[in-house]
Design goal:
about 220 residues; globular; Oxidized Rhodanese, domain 1; about 15% strand; about 35% helix; two-stranded antiparallel ribbon
Length: about 220
């Protein structure tokens, strides 16, 4: 299978057609301004996926497997301002707490209240994305490891960047967000306990959730 040309090498390890670089900036803007750009975002992603091919490349997230369409989309969305952590690695990290004497991992869910109420990672602290700059972390040691996540990792990357600006030294973004966490077989909970429900953010993003039950409102 031939890869489309011309192409450039991105910071995330992808060979991306020049047109996809344009999508990278546009999609990032639309994620930051969701109310203004939902229709354009839908159109952009449909065009992007229609012209995307794996071309036998390996995923930068998991080198031993072929890069998926989801990996490619994340490569366009992420600005690479925050290191990522794989779901499996995070699950191991949470089981092995505390981390090298630096305290437990501070796990931050950076979505909306509705998304968090449907389900979240066990032990995650809710941080409303619309007001994350008001988050009071004065009593949190800057050496404490922090992991942020959202639906796919775009919003949480913004929060992670801000946390690094506040002096936090060990901040990581959950690769692929709660979608990848679920797709990799990890567990989530809600107020009632373990669940398979996951808020898909919108009907546009729902197809990326391969495991779990898409739910838009907490039961």
């Amino acid at each position: 299978m031939n890869c489309p040309a011309p192409a450039v090498y991105s910071a995330t390890g992808y060979w991306l057609p020049t047109t996809h670089r344009i999508f990278m900036k546009r999609l990032a803007f639309l994620f930051e301004n969701p109310l203004r750009g939902r229709r354009l975002l839908a159109l952009g992603l449909l065009v992007l996926l229609a012209g995307t091919s794996a071309c036998g490349q390996q995923s930068p997230a998991t080198p031993n497997r072929t890069m998926t369409a989801y990996d490619r989309m994340l490569g366009l969305l992420y600005k690479n301002t925050v290191p990522t952590i794989q779901p499996k690695a995070l699950a191991t990290l949470l089981r092995e707490e505390p981390v090298s004497g630096r305290g437990n991992v501070l796990l931050l869910d950076t979505r909306t209240p509705a998304e968090y109420q449907v389900s979240h990672l066990r032990g995650a602290r809710f941080v409303d994305f619309d007001n994350f700059r008001k988050l009071d972390l004065k009593d949190v040691a800057r050496t404490r490891p922090v992991v942020v996540y959202c639906t796919v990792g775009a919003r949480s990357e913004q929060v992670g960047s801000w946390l690094r600006e506040q002096g936090f030294r060990d901040v990581r973004n959950l690769y692929g967000g709660i979608f990848q966490w679920m797709n990799d077989g990890q567990a989530v909970v809600n107020a009632q306990g373990p669940t398979t429900d996951v808020h898909p953010y919108s009907v546009l993003w729902r197809p990326w959730l391969k495991t779990g039950n898409p739910v838009y409102e907490a039961k």
